[in-house]
Structures are given as C-alpha cells and as structure tokens.
Design goal:
By secondary structure, the protein is mainly alpha-helical. The chain has a domain at 51-83. 65% of the residues lie in helices and 0% in strands. It has four helices and no strands. The protein has helices at residues 6-10, 29-45, 50-53, 55-82. The longest helix has 28 residues, at 55-82. The model has no long low-confidence stretch (mean pLDDT 76).
C-alpha cells in the first residue's frame, strides 16, 4: 500500500452535521427574517464598479488586442511576400 501524501496527512476528516429539525413552535417569520439579509448582501454586491475593480484587466486586454492585430498584419504581409 502506498504511503499517504503530506496533503492527505494535513487534510482533516470532513464531518457533516445533520440540519436541525424545524419545530412547529418556530414561527414562519423567523425564516422570513433571514431572506432580506441575503437580498441586502446581493444588492450591495451588485453596486461594485467593475471598471475600478478590474482596471488592470482592461489594460491587459487592450495590450493583447494590439499584439493580436500586429501579429495578423505580420502574418498577412508574410503570406503576401512569400507567394
């Protein structure tokens, strides 16, 4: 049998807990209270300005586009010259 790797040694066993049973004494409003918190979190996440967050990505995409255009021009020029 092969030895365990270091990753397997470090990995803790995963234990899953069963969900707590819903009792009849718990009102429905308790479940409704948690829903606005989720939608409020989603609303704040949608207000992120992507142009400010990923300014470096746009700069990299622009550089890639310029390099691609230059390489296509070079490809067509070589194809024309070598014929």
């Amino acid at each position: 049998m092969p030895k365990k790797t270091k990753r397997q040694h470090r990995k803790a066993p995963i234990t899953r807990e069963a969900p707590a049973p819903v009792s009849a004494a718990q009102p429905e409003s308790a479940a409704a209270v948690s829903k606005p918190a989720v939608s409020a979190r989603a609303a704040t996440a949608s207000k992120v300005d992507l142009a400010q967050e990923y300014h470096y990505v746009f700069a990299d995409l622009r550089k890639i586009a310029i390099i691609a255009v230059v390489m296509f021009v070079l490809l067509f020029a070589l194809a024309y010259v070598l014929r």
